[in-house]
Amino acid sequence: MAEKTAKNKAYSAESIQVLEGLEPVRKRPGMYIGTTGTDGLHHLIWEIFDNARDEAMGGFANDIEVTLLPGNRVRVTDNGRGIPVDIHKQTKVSALETIMTTLHAGGKFGGEDGGYKVSGGLHGVGASVVNALSSYCKVTVHKDGGEYVQEYSQGKKKAAVKKIGSTKLSGTIVVFEPDKAIFPIIDFSFKRVVDHLRQQAYLVKGLRITVIDASKYEGKIKEEDVFKISELGLEIPSMSFYFEGGLLSLVKFYNSPLKPIHKNIFYVEKKINEYESVEVSLQYVDDISARILAFANNIHTPEGGTHLTGFKTALTRTLNTYGRKNNLIKESEDNFTGEDVLEGLTAVISVKLREIQFEGQTKGKLGTVEAQGTVNTVFSEAFTYFLEENPDDARAIINKVVLALKARKAAKAAKDSVLRKGALEGMTLPGKLADCQSKSAEDSELFIVEGDSAGGTAKTGRDRRTQAILPLRGKILNIERARLDRMLESEQIKNLVIALGTAIGDTFDISKLRYHKIIIATDADVDGAHIRTLILTLLYRFFRPLIDGGYIYIAQPPLYKIKKGKEIHYAYSDDEKAKVVGKDEVEEATEPQPEEEVAEVEEAEKDEKKTTKKSKVSIQRYKGLGEMNAEELWETTMDPERRILKQVTIEDGVAADKVFDILMGTDVPARKSFIQSNATKANLDV
Predict the structure, then answer these.
(1) What is the pLDDT of residue 603?
(2) What amino acid positions are annotated as catalytic residues?
(3) Domain definitions of the chain by residue range
């Protein structure tokens, strides 16, 4: 023991690091905002917005403006009461400074003296975390006739709170600029902000939310231009939202590209007491996917939680009870399961609770136990009444669920016949799959290649140790409206499912995934884009965890092979081609042919009397992967040291869901309208 103690002598009180103030946030930002990537960057906006929205939920504000400013700055303005600026008894500094520079400080811990009775920012860390992760932050408060301001950098105040004038306004203005030392890429998405805040507007009746993109108006917009920046007379992109219909309007919005199977949308809002309430809206549509959003104190909980569990339990029990009572379910038929009643369902559940507990700082899952019983009781009673008062709607819903039950049984039979135990363990892999030698999923890659020709080339050019090749013949089935049993009748899809190793449906197990990089490699033409979309639809609907886990990639093969003398260059776009060949020569060259374009390029001219020396530049346009030989495919598309891969991610699951519905569904007018509206955003290769 004496020898061991001597070796560890350096481990003493001096070895214990104490982080003061907001240092823990800068040291471990992921603990507070989840990630320092795009999600975490936008999470900063949500945190400041949530504070303003909580004012509105308390009845103290009805107008919030979120503006993307030049220089990567964001401003959030509300017309609430304004953050208190008087001295805090415990911290001995201004309440504003306390809130902005101290973790777990704010008006969100209950109490009757002006604090929030219901709020989303439970932990009181939102504003201080944003401040800690910003190189610049400034808060202006309009309160009780005075205008006050305080600035910060990396969570530390630059000076004390200062009164700079008088005002007739009321509210808080927060401007922040994310710290480049924390966030490697700072690029706010106006669309993402709009989508998130539109959703929030549905959740708070009577609240107007305006989103403005002034990021490209350097010199024309000042931080002080607040409270209706739209009145400045500039044509700045902006959107404003105000809804009185609540969740019913939100369900109607989500179902707009789909065909409802019953006329009336179910809706209930019930106050439990002065501060707490349950709000639920739902409608079934002619689809096989479910779209369920759950909120707790207006915070989206993508991982669900107790409120969602209470809803699902009540939904299953209520439909079974009503169906049996009214002889809509045959005696010989089994009871509906949770899986059956969710098919084709669009639902939004929102609870407002005084004492609320989330699992994790980013509030992805509700943990408040009481929410389960409360939602169960309120929804069950109201939905039973809805079914009894609307028998035609009730019959349509029950019939829909009965079909889902039958389809589930058929799908199970099909799945059991296809996905045998041996296949799932990789013992009976599809014959077309050229598997890799590695048994480590972390080191293995699966290339899903369009066509046997490209598949053969890829098999020859690959690194056999870590790269597997699965060629798909033609266009796979569009599974957007296909049930599992019909889907597994497709040989192409069956091969892919078995190759992945995870199984599918209720037996899906991501731990059995055989490759940690699944790379979609299709031709750079319209057919290739269509095939890629069909594969992505399959992965999104039945293998969503693979996308969420970051396992799905899209290969970027080059468009051109350029020979300039003895040099060979690959260009992945027309701009790259222009840079390699030279802009003037490209403009003078004839139209590229499918196989090869030959341009005369002037090399040099020493003087006017001497003949110009010219050399030929040949440009080959690749229309498909099969046109490349094995060496070309390896060095441009498959070599980990040189290839370009695009990782497939989902910023907004609901928005992605809606786009898949429109593009891959059966509503032709909706698809035509979407294409016409977004045609200018497409990169066309004509």
Answers:
(1) 44
(2) 450, 523, 525, 527
(3) 23-241, 247-415, 419-557+646-650, 654-686
